[in-house]
Amino acid sequence: MRSVKFILAAGAASLMSTAVFAADMPIAPPPQMYAPPPVEDFGGWYLRGDIGFSNQRVKNIEMGDGRNASLLSLQQTTAFDTAGIFQLGVGYQFNNWFRGDITGQYRGNSNFKGTDHVTFPSSGLVGTGVNNYNATKSEWVVMANGYVDLGTWWCVTPFVGAGVGMARVNIGNYTDNGAINVGSAGGVPFIGGPFPSYASAPAASKWNFAWALHTGLAYKVNPAMTVELGYSYMNLGDGQTGPVSTYDGFTRGVAMQFKDITSHDLKLGVRWNLDSPPAYAPPPPLIRKG
Q1: For the whole prediction, is pTM greater than 0.85?
Q2: Residue 22 host element (H or E)
Q3: Which in 133, 195, 256, 290 has the greatest CB count within 10 A?
């Protein structure tokens, strides 16, 4: 009986000592869950830069005094060489489908060539003539643009947009080399020519209202950078030379007008998001003290 009591007493002592030892041990903190702040898919300022090239057209060119209206016939062909486009801008992403920016664009010198084949009456003369035009053209364009992003698939976002602004069109190096053939004079048949002609004009600039339509694809490389391939149709308004002078120095006092200049532009650009979220590093592993 005494041995049983001894065993029970020893067991109770052992349980008490184990409880006291457990109370002295440090309690491990609960596991911490890493949860970075939520990242929005939109919002924030951005910078942009673009380069590209133009494919330009002009409706027609004519003297500013309206003398083209007196021609019996006019056949005209015109063409611009491709020129470089350089653009910088700043914008804001309002939400995940709408953004806007303001851009400044320099459109480099483009060589112009044109030819007129005309039939004309002038001071009792009826004849034909040809004019061969040469010039250069460049522009500065400032424009406010708005874009609608149409959804994102595999980091690619198609978009459409439009813009309005001002274009400063500069026409320089204008020359006109031509020839005239006279067919009759005062109703009497007369064959004469070709008589050579030459005219030139100093450079001049003109500010116009300009507008554009945009479309393209944007690829989000990372939260801070987006690459964009875009197309724009631009209407740049009219351009004009300085007063036209003939080869002998006679100044007509009127300019040559370049009417309704348009362009199909292709550009490659980059947008840098100035408000991209920071990258959070995972916390270090917890080390328990024994």
Answers
A1: no
A2: helix 2-24
A3: 256
